[in-house]
Design goal:
Blueprint lengths: L8 H13 L3 H7 L9 H4 L3 H4 L35 E2 L20 E2 L12 E6 L5 E4 H5 L4 E8 L16 H5 L2 E10 H8 L11 E6 L7 E4 H6 L2 E6 L2 E2 L9 E3 L12 E7 L14 E2 L5 E2 L8 E6 L11 E10 L5 E7 L7 E2 L1 E2 L9 E9 L4 E9 L8 H8 L12 E4 L5 E4 L3
Bound molecules: the ligand Nc1nc2c(c(=O)[nH]1)N[C@H]1C(S)=C(S)[C@@H](COP(=O)(O)O)O[C@H]1N2 and molybdenum atom.
The site of ligand MTE has 21 residues, from β2.
């Protein structure tokens, strides 16, 4: 990883000159629109908020973002689905920074709506090829040793509308079927071992079938190796109870694997001799290739990245000079080790700075601290993970997959940033 390659002399120079001009005038002087000779009333005059009292501590039960951030919300695309019950909305990734997605704006995907399930009414059953079939209450689950892990969840359909051409104008819509949370829960291994796996015999070819308590049940088969590796039965996300829409009170976490397998309101885990081949792993969540045959068991989300700002919903509004280009990268195969950014549609690349070291199967924030003087850019980012895998171009992906796919589109995205700072979703060839 390159260490701050773009914190060059120009930025330091800017900071020094801003200080010399005096507070307040400095920032706008950089944009070339004001000088120290024009006093800024926000600096020179006492403001309302400093001459009276603010609000008292809030008597309402739970805090919400300040009103000025009211547009940082999940949004849906109305024409995408017939109704909002079996539907999806999108995380406002264009407006977030860092890596953690607050639950309140983390995208939701339901096949039969989000259900209200009380902790007291919650049961989790483990049956099938185990020594002792068990039923756990929520309180039972809380008595097993817990762990904390941060993982991304990406719906396999993320970017699925972009196969045939540039379609949706905004990172929220092209790449917003993703969130990244810190989960607290019990490992699936702990619970399977509690039920006893001896009855299953040789575990090598065994599977678990997991299903939810909602009407869709969203049943999926997971190979035993993954079930025993890093899956979590999670109760909390980002420190607090799961929101209803994310599976309250308990959901399955399947790190690095497609979001569909992260069963919400999880009610049953059956140890089996083979996969069920359920709807969600046959007619859905398989990838039809050019010749009409379908890839199945495409569980892992390959390395991918997106520039979140500037982007169509986050145009450049300030003047020329310093510009922070930022975005997110992730890989279901492990850690992100490098992210490159191109301003010319992939002809030349610069290595971005990672906000912090890449984490296993979690979002990584990248920054390219640069200068922009109104020139057009064809902005792209490309992620590289610890296996050495490099995120493919759209052309490379189409060569292998054709145009019949919906799921697992991890191609490089292009934003055309124009002279006025506005950005548009485009394809470059
Ligand atoms: N029980 C149940 N689990 C489910 C689903 C569902 O409809 N029912 N949807 C799946 C799909 S397709 C995805 S992408 C993720 C979405 O999780 P989220 O709503 O927390 O973002 O949940 C998965 N788990
Ligand atoms: Mo999904």
């Amino acid at each position: 990883m390159a260490d701050q390659p773009n914190q060059g002399p120009s930025r330091r120079q800017f900071l020094t000159s801003a200080a010399a001009l005096g507070a307040g005038a400095g920032i706008s002087a950089v944009a070339g629109s004001a000088s120290a000779a024009t006093p800024d009333p926000l600096i020179t005059e006492v403001q309302d908020w400093a001459s009276g009292l603010g609000d008292g501590v809030d008597a309402s039960p739970y805090g919400v973002p300040i009103q000025f951030e009211g547009d940082v919300i999940r949004r849906n695309v109305e024409w995408l689905t017939a109704d909002t019950i079996s539907s999806i909305n999108f995380t406002p990734i264009h407006a977030l920074d860092g890596t953690i997605t607050p639950q309140g704006c983390a995208f939701e995907r339901h096949h039969s709506g989000a259900i209200e399930l009380k902790k007291e009414d919650y049961r989790l059953m483990i049956n099938g090829l185990v020594d002792t079939p068990l039923v756990f209450s929520y309180e039972d689950l809380e008595r097993f040793p817990r762990q904390n892990h941060t993982y991304f969840l990406e719906c396999a359909a993320n970017t699925g509308m972009e196969w045939a051409g540039a379609q949706l104008n905004g990172a929220q819509f092209t790449h917003g079927m993703i969130h990244n949370m810190e989960y607290s829960g019990v490992t699936l291994r702990t619970l399977l071992e509690e039920a006893g796996l001896d009855a299953a015999g040789d575990l090598k070819d065994k599977w678990v079938y997991v299903e939810g308590a909602d009407a869709s049940s969203n049943g999926r088969s997971i190979p035993m190796e993954k079930a025993l590796d890093d899956c979590l039965i999670a109760f909390k996300a980002n420190g607090e109870a799961l929101r209803m829409e994310h599976g309250y009170p308990v959901r399955l976490v399947v790190p690095g694997w497609e979001g569909n397998m992260w069963v919400k309101w999880i009610r049953r885990i059956e140890v089996m001799d083979g996969p069920v081949e359920s709807r969600e792993e046959t007619s859905k969540y398989t990838d039809v290739l050019e010749d009409g045959t379908a890839r199945k068991w495409t569980w892992v989300m390959d390395a991918k990245s997106i520039v979140t700002s500037p982007s169509p919903q986050a145009p450049i509004k300030h003047g020329h000079g310093p510009l922070v280009i930022t975005g997110l990268a992730w890989s279901g195969h492990g850690k992100i080790t490098r992210v490159d950014v191109s301003k010319d549609g992939g002809k030349t690349w610069e290595t971005a700075r990672l906000g912090k070291e890449g984490e296993d199967k979690a979002l990584t924030r990248f920054y390219l601290d640069t200068e922009w003087n109104g020139e057009e850019m064809f902005l792209q980012s490309r992620a590289i993970d610890e296996t050495g895998y490099v995120q493919p171009t759209k052309t490379q992906l189409r060569e292998v997959r054709g145009l019949n796919s919906i799921y697992h589109n991890n191609c490089i995205q292009t934003w055309w940033v124009k002279a006025d700072g506005e950005a548009e979703n485009v394809e470059v060839s």
